[in-house]
Design goal:
By secondary structure, the chain is an all-alpha fold. The protein is 73% helix and 0% strand. It is globular, with a radius of gyration of 21 Å.
């Protein structure tokens, strides 16, 4: 994992080898870290934050936002997915594993929403099934172009937001980030990790700053939408990868790196500073917590359904709100939404995700 190994191989004219990756239960079956627990926390933070947002309920304090949680997922992917590619650097195998992990449950939730929409819509069933909007929704979402048609006809029309699943915008970003892994791995065989990672971070920061400047100059909200897309998320994904590539020195210096990262995280949220350091602090906190808080390892003893929780929570919340249950009891509606989400996620894992993962391993 050490940087010197890359430098030595490069100077000798040989192709540098991938540094040894730390063991993770995701890849090796051991229970040596708390990544699964962190996944659950991030998934439920997104769900709770979206419940507050969809009910237009102000939150108290500056505790973790849905944006924090989403960027946390990108950090986790940067660490774990790059680790997976290091262990078996064959792009065909890598692509098959990633697609079998991500796409089947994604398609399942889209089809399920279309079917459920026939029972939730205010339109006559025949009109719903023959509406062009229904098929635009289906096609746009299947091809990860959720912004083209986020709503189904007559579904959630009285909710504050009519989008069926507003959380799916991250899926195209996630797949694009996955697609960069073989390319970046090839660059790492030619150049030092510090050079490659610095170039990625600069690209990501310049992209975000450029769109900010363009928005300030034009006032066009499209700039803000584009700002949160693929390129600006590279810094989070590869901040996780940086923790992997420099894992040994990160572990040796964790005793002072983690308190410093916590300070930067708090400063960013409380005082709005340290914006450029925040992605790296967030990555250090996530990876450091996973490897330095042993009590979190219990979550790895059971199958992890956090991905399905992320996919299902938004339409479940929208359904609960469409029946006005939050007006009777805010907390009751929240607990019901989270419970139904977890139950549907467990079913998705058993009947959709697990069979496809077994097929991918073959």
């Amino acid at each position: 994992m050490a940087h010197s190994r890359f430098a030595k191989n490069t100077e000798s004219g040989k192709a540098p080898q991938h540094p040894a990756a730390p063991r993770t239960q995701t890849e090796t079956g051991d229970r040596g870290n708390g990544f699964d627990f962190i996944r659950y926390v991030l998934a439920f933070v997104v769900a709770v934050a979206h419940f507050y947002g969809l009910t237009d309920t102000p939150r108290q304090g500056w505790w973790m936002t849905s944006g924090d949680a989403v960027s946390g997922f990108f950090v986790l992917s940067g660490f774990l997915v790059f680790c997976s590619f290091q262990r078996q650097p064959d792009w065909r195998h890598y692509a098959r594993r990633r697609l079998c992990r991500v796409v089947p449950p994604y398609l399942f939730i889209i089809l399920l929403c279309v079917v459920a929409g026939a029972f939730l819509t205010e339109w006559p069933t025949a009109d719903y099934l023959t509406s062009g909007q229904t098929y635009r929704y289906l096609l746009a979402n299947v091809f990860f172009l959720n912004f083209l048609e986020p709503s189904l006809p007559g579904v959630f029309s009285h909710n504050a937001l009519t989008a069926v699943n507003g959380a799916l915008w991250t899926m195209k970003v996630e797949l694009l980030l996955y697609a960069t892994v073989p390319l970046v791995a090839a660059c790492l065989r030619r150049w030092r990790p510090a050079v490659v990672l610095t170039a990625i971070f600069l690209l990501s920061f310049l992209y975000a700053e450029g769109l900010d400047a363009l928005y300030n100059a034009t006032g066009n909200a499209v700039c803000l939408m584009l700002k949160r897309q693929f390129v600006s998320q590279l810094v989070y994904f590869y901040a996780g990868t940086a923790a992997l590539l420099y894992f040994a020195p990160f572990q040796r210096n964790a005793i002072w790196l983690l308190p410093l990262a916590l300070f930067v995280y708090i400063a960013h949220h409380a005082w709005g500073c340290c914006a450029y350091l925040y992605p790296f602090a967030w990555a250090a906190l996530i990876v450091g917590t996973a490897f330095h808080v042993p009590c979190l390892r219990f979550a790895s003893r059971v199958s992890n359904i956090s991905y399905s929780i992320y996919l299902f929570h938004f339409p479940v919340i929208q359904t609960v709100l469409s029946f006005g249950l939050h007006q009777r009891s805010f907390w009751g509606a929240l607990v019901l939404s989270l419970t139904l989400t977890a139950l549907l996620a467990a079913c998705s894992w058993k009947f959709v995700e697990k069979p496809w993962l077994r097929l991918a391993r073959r």
